[in-house]
């Protein structure tokens, strides 16, 4: 799975052009972010910030397309075509990520509000209770943060497979796939690739080679997610077939 994913971005006649476009989009976004930060003092930078999100959304949409093509069994990476569709899919993917992150925002809001009440309270019991509550809240925050790192790729794969945002939250189906060893292996390999990519890509991100490493590893990452998802789906379907045959034989026997 890993060897296939590492070579996946190059399995197309237009691979070099695709990698260059993806790298330029990431570089353009970083440049706009940097320029808008400089111009914040004159308020122009505020209006430039949304422009930095457009290239990132297109790259995110491309990653969704990688998921879809891999799940469909296509071993060739997609090209940057139908940019409007890429932008729309990227925004949808961000929405899915945001929805999964809502519990984290809720926990932080509760902790902040509880801390505010404790700060204005003179009761030692209230302050002690807040200390215990904070520890519990932080445990929930860390626990769900780790869980969301697993759930979000799973939800994005389901979204790419079905084409609807609601598919990313069909937890009965997601739990079956997520508990499958094939997806877990794909996820672990993807995390490994991302960590290595960040180690080498981030320090060189001001150069085109660093941005290229970051884009390349993102494509490999999503290929691994989708490969694990596809194998998990295939495994669950093959496991269900014997049960269906057994039920048919049992029904025939009763008749």
TrEMBL record:
InterPro entries: DUF4013. This is DUF4013 family protein. Keywords: Membrane, Transmembrane, Transmembrane helix. The chain crosses the membrane at residues 16-35, 42-62, 98-118, 130-152, 184-217. It comes from the Archaea.
């Amino acid at each position: 799975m890993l060897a296939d994913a590492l070579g996946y971005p190059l399995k197309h006649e237009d691979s070099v052009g695709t990698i260059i476009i993806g790298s330029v989009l990431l570089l353009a976004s970083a440049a706009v972010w940097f320029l808008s930060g400089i111009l914040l003092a004159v308020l122009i930078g505020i209006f430039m910030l949304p422009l930095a999100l457009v290239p990132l959304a297109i790259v995110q949409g491309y990653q969704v397309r990688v998921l879809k093509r891999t799940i469909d069994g296509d071993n060739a990476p997609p090209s940057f075509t139908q940019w409007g569709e890429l932008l729309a899919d990227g925004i949808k993917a961000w929405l899915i990520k945001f929805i999964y992150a809502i519990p984290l925002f809720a926990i932080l809001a509760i902790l902040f509000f509880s801390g505010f009440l404790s700060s204005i309270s003179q009761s030692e019991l209230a302050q002690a209770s807040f200390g215990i509550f904070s520890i519990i809240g932080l445990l929930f925050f860390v626990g769900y943060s780790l869980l969301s790192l697993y759930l979000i790729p799973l939800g994005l794969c389901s979204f790419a497979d079905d084409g609807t945002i609601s598919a990313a939250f069909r937890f009965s189906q997601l739990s079956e796939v997520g508990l499958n060893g094939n997806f877990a292996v794909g996820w672990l390999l993807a995390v490994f690739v991302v960590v290595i990519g960040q180690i080498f890509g981030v320090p060189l991100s001001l150069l085109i080679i660093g941005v290229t490493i970051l884009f390349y590893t993102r494509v490999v990452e999503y290929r691994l997610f989708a490969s694990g998802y596809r194998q998990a789906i295939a495994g669950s379907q093959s496991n269900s077939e014997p049960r269906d045959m057994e039920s048919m034989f049992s029904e025939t026997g009763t008749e």
